[in-house]
Amino acid sequence: MSELNEPNDLLSYEKEYWNLSYQHIAGIDEVGRGCLFGDVVAAAVILPVGLILEGVNDSKKLSAKKRDQLYDAIMEQAISVGIGRVDAAMIDKINIKQATRLAMKMALEQLKIQPDFLLVDAEKVDVSIPQLAVIKGDAASQSIAAASIVAKVTRDRLCQGEWNALYPEYGIGIHKGYATKMHREQIQLLGPTPMHRKSFMRNLFIEEQTLF
């Protein structure tokens, strides 16, 4: 563990609220918001006061190997980690923004320790805990970055394991449910699965039709 006063830009938000006597700050982020397939997955991570995890950054900027390494470090050193998942049917029912917020709330509810402050990546969670929405928070806060890594690794493993085994012909393990050319072609060829977001399908095919 590094000293609290060691310079680290990713701890600027945490330091501000640690100095206000908040001890259990949870970083919250999601992954899969823009996918055509599968759950939106959120993570909430409480790290010890003053801990610096070298290499932690926005999960999108890291290689899969580095994310896996950091995931293990986060899971080992975090005070508590919670995961929330909202499936395609619920996304279609309540829309992706509300589903994202729900997944974040579910992740919070999985924490074994009640946080006293939340740092959230550009969202508001429907709880009474004091919170701050941080724009591009996964590149500005270590706690949010840690949550982004946990959420990303969790969802990628679902894509490459369970979900790919259910629907191997769609290549979920390769594109992770995003709207790649291969994925769109397989949807057109085979039709959507029960895990595809039907509300996203309408937009997808409308966009494709406008290209011709």
UniProtKB/TrEMBL annotation:
Cofactor comment text: Manganese or magnesium. Binds 1 divalent metal ion per monomer in the absence of substrate. May bind a second metal ion after substrate binding.
Superkingdom as given in the UniProt entry: Bacteria
Co-factor(s): Mn(2+); Mg(2+)
Presence of the UniProt keyword Coiled coil in the record: no
Keyword Cytoplasm in annotation: yes
Keywords, ordered alphabetically: Cytoplasm, Endonuclease, Hydrolase, Manganese, Metal-binding, Nuclease
Principal location listed in the UniProt entry: cytoplasm
Localisation: Cytoplasm
Start and end residues of each RNase H type-2 domain: 23-212
Gene3D superfamilies the UniProt entry points to: Ribonuclease H-like superfamily/Ribonuclease H
SUPFAM superfamilies from the UniProt entry: Ribonuclease H-like
Chain residues that bind a divalent metal cation: D29, E30, D121
Pfam families for this protein: RNase_HII (PF01351)
Catalysed reaction, written as an equation: Endonucleolytic cleavage to 5'-phosphomonoester
A GO molecular function held by the record: RNA-DNA hybrid ribonuclease activity
HAMAP family in the record: RNase_HII_B (MF_00052_B)
Family the entry assigns: Belongs to the RNase HII family.
NCBIfam families: PRK00015.1-1, PRK00015.1-3
Entry function: Endonuclease that specifically degrades the RNA of RNA-DNA hybrids.
Name of the protein described by the UniProt record: Ribonuclease HII
Organism: Paenibacillus turicensis
Lineage, opening ranks: Bacteria, Bacillati, Bacillota, Bacilli, Bacillales
